Amino acid sequence: MSQPQSSNPMPLGLLGFGMTTIMLNLHNAGVIEMNIMIAAMGFMLGGAAQILAGIMAFRRGNTFGGTAFCAYGLFWLSLVLIWWNPLELALCDSNALGFYLLIWGLFTAFMFLGSLKHNTISKIVFGSLTMLFILLAVGDFTQLRWITIIAGIVGIFCGLSAFYSAVGQIVNGEFGKKVLPM
Hints:
Layout: H1 10-28, H2 36-59, H3 63-84, H4 94-115, H5 120-142, H6 145-175
């Protein structure tokens, strides 16, 4: 009796990350207002789906993917918690949020180094995500709206890159050959 084939959790994590990143950065770029849809996507797709994909990646022995998806899934859950503030703690001011985003930018810069071993699209995702976190942090530190708008544009690009990576992995896997270059 043969072992069941293990499925690839990476597209789920990339879709969770990519779609949520696009939606939040449409807000950062000034295209849409902040709303419950962004928070709900952040909680379910950005948070829960990425954590699930991360656990599955760890089970397959993929430390990089497992760490990335679990960490960024927890980022999304923590960000929604910051927005929601159910414990009614002191609100997070822009300076504190700047440090929060800067720490995530530092983590992402190290993940970018790890992505240098991976395909081109992974390098693009982690490189643009590093830029996004740094720009968002600078935007919060300086309170200059135009920096946050630029961050939003970078974030939309980053999210679309992750979305492309997910679709590429699904399509290439289904056809058993390279249909979409990675």
